[in-house]
Amino acid sequence: MMKRPITIGVAGHIDHGKTALTKALTHIETDRLAEEKERNISIENGYAFFDLEPGWRAAVIDVPGHERFIRKMIAGVAGVDVALFVIAADEGMMPQTREHLAILELLGITPALFVVTKSDKVDAEMLSLAQHEIVEYIQGSIYENAAIYCVDSLSGRGIETLKQAIRETAMTVRYKGYGKSLRLPIDDVFTLHGHGTIIRGTIFDGKITNQGNYELLPAHKKLRIKQLQVHHERVNEAISGQRVAVNVAGVEQSEVKRGDVLVTPGAYHVTQRIDIQLHTLSSLQTPLKQRMPITLHIGTSQVRGNLILFDRQRLKEGTSVVAQLALDAQVVTQRGDRFILRRPTPAETIGGGEVLDADAPKHRFGEQTVEQLSLLAKGTPETLLLAALEKQQVMSEENLKAAIRSFYEDEGHQLLQQLQADQKIIAIDSKQYLLGETYSYYIESLLDILKTYHERYPLKFGMPRSEWFSRSPAPAEITQTLAQQLVADKQVVYHGPLVSWSYFVPHYPKEWARRLEQVKEQLKGSGLQAAGWAHIVQHFQLPEDIATDYKYFLLNSGEALQIEEDQLVDKSVFTHAIEQLRQKTAEVFTLQEAREVLELSRKYLIPFLEMCDALKITTREGHSRRWL
After folding, report:
1. What is the pTM assigned to this prediction?
2. Which CATH class name applies to 511-627?
3. Which band of pLDDT confidence, cut at 50, 70 and 90, is reported for residue 34?
């Protein structure tokens, strides 16, 4: 399974030790504002990173626990993959613990770990009671089987065990959003002297590249990327799941706000009316009324609007219905996105759910509309099939048909044919299917891996195929099939165990070209008495990696022959010596005759003649040799 970039969210009641826990895990202080340090509470989302293992870094978001900052909390957890629920041992489950838990469950954020902090402040009995309370509270929720860990962030007790649990949990997170167009909800914007506008957020879908051109929605403003950073390090591209800071050109700080979305131009549109599947919380204090004001939290956006019901005038707690939101401002969303609804006054979380139609028309009140939206909630054959493929990456035809068989018995084969004709899905070996966007991503990734390799090792004739396959983002079972397709399309070429771009020609690195040419000239000028390769490398002060690559470049290109382990001879010199020897000796010749013709000492003559034997130019007969 691919180790994809992930984001870890730390949530819970105020003063339960979320920031201290984050620091214990990451060694980073996330409370950076003077007011936060003075009041000892988190006001803004705090950001850090956690190295799961070498080369695999996770973003960590420490969200505020105070009820006044719930909007920031929701925006912070919008792109979270793994949740850490924090409960202090000395206080147990508190109001914001429960609200944060409800919000994350409504957003469908799994997996999750429950962390009991400040465990050194209580005795064993109190610690056991705190754990028991959690177990009781999460019964029947999507978190009922979640593990509970007890830690003390200040002393470090339990932190290493928790770290290992996070690593193991992260391994279960599936990669998502590759192959799609960029969607980057913005949760922070500021200016930096000498750079201009900086935006930050977690990439929901697709990838962003340095120097790329993108669009800011809902303003429809074109932007250019000047610089990208992931965890304070400059990068050329970032992909879904990664938290990025983006230096943009073409917009002032005042023109960007939290909730705006950076996208691939033309890939997404804005909307003010969406159909939804809504689930209300069982803790709801007052029933919801037809067309009542609501606040929608989706991605990092917060928008006011009205709730429209189609078969009732009031909606009670713990109810699931299809409904519509008529919004006061534009948002960027798509089918399947999760959201939270809150009541503006009195402020409370009332529920959440899933977007069914991101660009909905107005509907009539009545059962017909409910039936229509209920059908949409179950999914059309196409949306169900494409959603299954997005989740599983690669599926057989039988499994794809099974994904829609329960509702659309006879449409499977016809739908597969149509989706292939539209290039929405691609068949691999007529047995396996994947999304067209995913197929393009895998193909581009395989080519990009080769491109990067050629740029780094211009003297090498190709990349080891085994290494190429191992670095592929595609599942192992289809990587070789995709590679064979690239060969058939003449985009790549196999050279035995190596692979290269079809148009790639090995060449000197620009910064070493002159010196390598001098090495070649010395080899040619030295004739059959060239110095050892180690001596030449030292004389021309070649780095070890360049020297090794150049040696095999000369041998693989046929420009030189390896006479002895440490001696190379120019191929044209070798060929000229053979021609001289042929002209001045009979069909059978002795070592002495060869020595007189070539004027070589035994030190150089014997390896030369043995190379002639190895190349089957001559064959040894006693103390003589015969031309073949």
Report:
1. 0.63
2. mainly alpha
3. very low
